[in-house]
Amino acid sequence: MSTTINVEGMSCEHCEQTVEEALRGVGGVTDATADREAEQASVDGDADPDALVQAVEDAGYTASA
Predict the structure, then answer these.
(1) Relative orientation angle of helices 49-58 and 13-24, to the nearest 10 degrees
(2) What does the DSSP assignment read for 12-55?
(3) At the N or C end, where does the chain have fewer CB atoms within 10 A?
(4) Matching Gene3D superfamilies, A to Z (predicted)?
(5) What pLDDT sits at residue 37?
(6) How many whole angstroms separate alpha carbon 57 and alpha carbon 39?
(7) Strand pairing partners for 63?
(8) pTM of the prediction?
């Protein structure tokens, strides 16, 4: 299953990496890819969307499912 979440505040490649690492730390995530230009992250796995949003927000970005 793939989930897309909206992420605001990414301005560079390091930001994308930070978001990806935060998402990969959520249980059930098998892979995550962030795109600062699209302001989105794509997540593979069966993680709870609310947990994904929380992980991104804990990393310092604004997110919504």
Answers:
(1) 130
(2) SHHHHHHHHHHHHTSTTEEEEEEETTTTEEEEEES--HHHHHHH
(3) N
(4) 3.30.70.100
(5) 98
(6) 14
(7) 7
(8) 0.96
